[in-house]
Design brief:
The chain is an alpha/beta fold and 402 residues long.
Length: 402
């Protein structure tokens, strides 16, 4: 290799098989100078939150400190030139290469030349695949993002595949959901400088959690689909207010959101049937859609109530408030999806309260700022808008979850 080449690229594919090191954990031979790494995460929700959760699990479980900056960085640039900022993204190419068949994600690692010290890593997820969130046995048609993120972050730390033990770093990256003893041993061995590492995971952590009831899995996906629908469809209305009325464009925008909803909804029904069960909700997505549409219409009506489209400043303000309402609707539907198993009621309630408070704050700030600039908001008060969005999520969740 030419001396001028400053960096060496090491690939670690999620599912490429390589000979398993005998004994315990696999190590790439690379490590960070200190047991810590900052990740730049600009993924779309809910992937951002899931990625952050996977980082936290490594930190809590091993003492390796991951920290987050919620900004996008190109993972294919990470470690090159001056960029020591570790990026992550979904892409239909693996940093310019076609994805090898069966590869879910790749971690690109850049060591300083001649020294086994990492200067940057980039994680890329294969955007040609269907990603979701669930517990239990891996479903070849829908990949659980959280598990693969957890595995790739192990590569970021410096770990390599380990096929001979139970490990998150098993070459099949979707098998294990929680940290295994072997992964722990790997990190604390590579980084003897971790201060007071936590105790190793209990061997009881070994058995993967019981498979999700197909109905619960279906409810989760249905709630995610509903959240995406209201987020996208209400944003179509927002655009129409901000840019000025354009009925054909509005129709096209809403139709696109609805088609996507029907696709995701129907796929969830099919998966449940494949597993020998059914979903709780009607298997005709058209009926469900018209029900959701009428609940979304209430939200839009409350925001736009008596709004004057003729006044450009007022129309823009209404558009921006619609956007906030759309985001809030997406967010609380995701919270409901997460909790479709009714795992922890108090956590769910807290998350919902936090989301609502955040929404009200943003919404009111915009209204106040408009008033300061002489722009009058004629819609309904924020609590009535919030209630309408909450109703959307509450009613749908009650229908979708047993
Ligand atoms: Zn891997």
């Amino acid at each position: 290799m030419r001396v001028g080449v400053a960096l060496l690229v090491v690939l670690a594919a999620a599912v490429l098989l390589r000979p398993a090191p005998t004994g315990s954990f696999g190590w790439s031979g690379l490590r960070w100078p200190t047991p810590e790494a900052t990740q730049y995460v600009g993924l779309a929700p809910p992937f951002d939150e899931s990625y952050e959760g996977a980082m936290q699990d490594w930190t809590d479980g091993t003492g390796f400190e991951f920290s987050i900056v919620k900004e996008y960085r190109d993972p294919c640039e990470s470690g090159f030139g001056n960029s020591t900022e570790n990026g992550v993204e979904f892409s239909d190419k693996a940093c310019g290469m076609e994805w090898p068949s069966g590869t879910l994600a790749m971690t690109f690692r850049h060591p300083s030349i001649g020294i086994a010290v990492l200067t940057g890593t980039g994680v890329v997820f294969n955007d040609n695949l269907d990603w979701g969130f669930y517990n239990g046995p891996p479903d070849p048609e829908l990949i659980d993002f959280r598990r693969v993120a957890f595995h790739e972050l192990g590569h970021v730390i410096g770990l390599e595949h380990e096929g001979s033990a139970d490990a998150v770093m098993h070459p099949s990256s979707t098998l294990f959901e929680v940290l295994q003893v072997d992964d722990y041993a790997g990190v604390v061995t590579i980084y003897p400088d971790i201060d007071n590492p936590p105790p190793p995971p209990s061997p009881d952590a070994k058995p993967p959690p019981p498979p999700l009831d197909p109905r619960v899995a279906c409810a989760k996906q249905h709630l995610l689909a509903a959240g995406k629908l209201c987020n996208k469809a209400i944003k179509c209305q927002a655009k129409d207010w901000i840019r000025g009325p354009d009925p054909p464009a509005l129709l096209k925008c809403v139709e696109k959101a609805e088609v996507r909803f029907v696709d995701v909804y129907s796929a969830a029904v099919e998966r449940a049937v494949d597993r020998g069960d059914s979903c709780k909700l009607d298997d005709d997505p058209g009926d469900v859609l018209s029900n959701l549409d009428s609940m979304m219409a209430v939200v839009v009506d409350r925001v736009t109530d008596s709004g004057n489209r003729g006044d450009e400043s007022e129309a823009k303000l209404v558009g921006r408030l619609l956007k906030d309402s759309a985001r809030y609707c997406g967010k609380i539907s995701r919270i409901e999806s997460k909790d479709a198993v009714r795992g922890n009621e108090s956590v769910r309630v807290k998350r919902r309260q936090k989301a609502r408070a955040g929404f009200e704050k943003k919404f009111s700030k915009k209204v106040d700022k408009g008033a300061d600039a002489g722009v009058v908001y004629n819609g309904r008060p924020v609590n009535e808008v919030g209630d309408a969005v909450d109703t959307f999520a509450d009613v749908f969740a009650a229908q979708a979850v047993d």
